[in-house]
Amino acid sequence: MSQPLSTAAPSSGLLGRLNGAHHRAALNVFLFVVLAHWAEHLVQAYQIWVLGMPRPKARGVLGQFYPWLVSSEWLHYGYAIVMLVFLFALRRGFVGRARTWWTVALAIQFWHHIEHFLLLWQVQSGTMFFGQKVPTSILQLVLPRVELHLFYNSVVFIPMVIAMYLHLRPNRQEQELMTCSCVGHRVAGRSLAPHAA
């Protein structure tokens, strides 16, 4: 996968700060949110496949205390939007190979958000699609919901992690173009004291 390296100069404003001086902190906050979401899905999978709980009772961690969370399409759609916004907002801080992988995650998340929008629309309108009795997304026609969302989370997470790895270990050309806080400080185009995540 190759893509031209970015030559964008740092900009001011919120997006400029998020992709410049605060890029590393913003990525860490985003990663925390993503990992917390992953934990919920993994606990739900454990409840179903290891503990043998019926799917409606397998609600993850928060869903055990707040059952309405699992069935709230607003919550699921809201999370899909948060993911989409973070992936879009933090993209400018990436260059070269890392930007390519980050863009792959963004594109897949855009489709994932469409699937959640279809579910939300069905709940809000009371009209079920595809002749189903419950809200159903397009790929849910071939994969059960729990498995489908484990798949979606994986295919967004994997390129995102590859992008972050490459971003923190840029080649010389990429490092010269970086304007964010992730890989040390620069003086006159040279990097000083790069550090790992």
Q: What do you see in this structure?
A:
This protein has 197 residues and is mostly helical. It has one domain. Helices cover 60% and strands 3% of the residues. The chain contains eight helices and two strands. Strands 1-2 form a two-stranded antiparallel sheet. Helix 2 (23-49) runs antiparallel to helix 7, helix 5 packs antiparallel against helix 6 and helix 6 packs antiparallel against helix 7. 26% of the residues are buried. Mean pLDDT is 87; it is low at 1-10 and 185-197.
Q: Would you spell out the secondary-structure blueprint of this structure?
A:
Elements: H1 13-18, H2 23-49, H3 62-65, H4 68-71, H5 73-89, H6 96-125, H7 145-168, H8 172-177, E1 185-187, E2 190-192
Helix pairs in contact: 2-7, 5-6, 6-7
